[in-house]
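tool=predict chain=A
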Amino acid sequence: MSIDKTTVSYIARLARINLEEDELDYYSGQLSKILNYIEKINELDLKEIPLSFSVYPDVNIYQDDEVLNFENTQAIIDIFPQKSDNFIKIPKVIE
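tool=predict ok
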């Protein structure tokens, strides 16, 4: 499949990229090579290949949520320089 300079210019305009004439020639050739390679891949018989593949045999390893009560919350609160009752104060990070 061949991509002409008009198509490259249109794509560049959509992407808000300014290309010079020599760049249009270069990228039209590069895009044509990429599409030709994709056409070669499309010719492969992939019917026996699963749709997704991972080198790791494990699938969706989940761990149940477990609620734990922390016994010494006051020790953590005491570490912070700014606090109010049982709350800690932190610097504002969002304007």
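The mean pLDDT is 88. The longest helix spans residues 21-42.
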